Amino acid sequence: MEHEHIGVLIKMASLEFDRQSNNLLISENLTASQFKILKYLTLHPQASVRQIDLELFFGMTNPTVTGIIQNLEKKELITRQNHPVDRRSKVILLTEKAMTMHDKILETSNLIEAGFTNKLNPEEIALLRPLLIKLLKTQHEKVNKGGLNASQ
């Protein structure tokens, strides 16, 4: 694996992260994608998140986010209501059921990350985070400047 392209290694790491996350979340009846959305909503003020915010933050398509939101609504963890200012838009709200899970969501997030990075020492983790952020910012800037097709 030492000679694989970095992009391939990042994709493999991402898939492994999702696999480990899904295994840990089975008992909560959540997928990794659903959990990511719930955590995002937990960390942002109530009634401040729109679907487009989720699409942009996670780099997901509208149909993908719509499906995740619909499944979370079926599980009675979120609701949607009209945006207080922009009537064309809806905000996503955590239900009371989801709000009672606040601490559990954050604890589970920490468990997932600790499990995934357990072979790294604290210095390696401290080095990895800014490198990944730098790569993501670089790609985001290229897409926004039209340098890359968003599907690349």
Automatic annotation (TrEMBL):
<dbReference type="InterPro" id="IPR036390">
    <property type="entry name" value="WH_DNA-bd_sf"/>
</dbReference>
<keyword id="KW-0804">Transcription</keyword>
<dbReference type="GO" id="GO:0003677">
    <property type="term" value="F:DNA binding"/>
</dbReference>
<dbReference type="InterPro" id="IPR036388">
    <property type="entry name" value="WH-like_DNA-bd_sf"/>
</dbReference>
<dbReference type="InterPro" id="IPR000835">
    <property type="entry name" value="HTH_MarR-typ"/>
</dbReference>
<feature type="domain" description="HTH marR-type">
    <location>
        <begin position="3"/>
        <end position="137"/>
    </location>
</feature>
<dbReference type="GO" id="GO:0003700">
    <property type="term" value="F:DNA-binding transcription factor activity"/>
</dbReference>
<keyword id="KW-0805">Transcription regulation</keyword>
<dbReference type="Pfam" id="PF01047">
    <property type="entry name" value="MarR"/>
</dbReference>
<protein>
    <submittedName>
        <fullName>MarR family transcriptional regulator</fullName>
    </submittedName>
</protein>
<dbReference type="InterPro" id="IPR023187">
    <property type="entry name" value="Tscrpt_reg_MarR-type_CS"/>
</dbReference>
<keyword id="KW-0238">DNA-binding</keyword>
